[in-house]
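#onboarding

Welcome to the new folks! Below is a worked example of what a typical request in this channel looks like: someone posts a single protein sequence, and someone else replies with the predicted structure as tokens. Don't worry about understanding the tokens yet, we'll cover that in week two.

Example request:
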Amino acid sequence: MNAALALRQARVSDHRTIVGCVQRWWSDSRTPEQARELSLLLPKLFLQFFSGTSLVLEDDAGIRAFLIGFHAADNDDEAYIHFVGVDPTLRGQGLGRTLYTEFLRRAAAADRREVRAITSPGNTGSIAFHRSMGFTLEPGDREVGGVPVCGDYDGPGQDRVRFHRSIVPGQAGRSGGTTDR
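Example response:
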């Protein structure tokens, strides 16, 4: 990771900046309208209620990467990674890995046992990244390209790939630990 970057807990005041990052950072692979729609997955409530479990990497230029995640309110064992973004000029430098590792560490320290995430079936980079981070693919109702997919997971036509990773609760180590559960 770039030594000039500082890792910190997200703040509610980061919301407008993060939404702007999503709209800019995804404009290389989406139309402006699609990038705007993607940013709608991050309403302010995520930072109003989950800033304590969300993370930001920043330098003098501002926010360069972020992770929006939370500990499940209705299940004391689980945490969830909702959205992650890395400035395209810094991709491939381990920023996503840094954010995930810290989120896993903090979830384990909070006695969570499992972390979950989802992505779109066509997002092969995300699928490969999650696998490299020790996540397993959860079963789906069909396979697409050898990957289990849950059809209509987020509504009609909104198929998703689901990920799961076990962690060792109470462990504050670097990787959050894994279990064979």
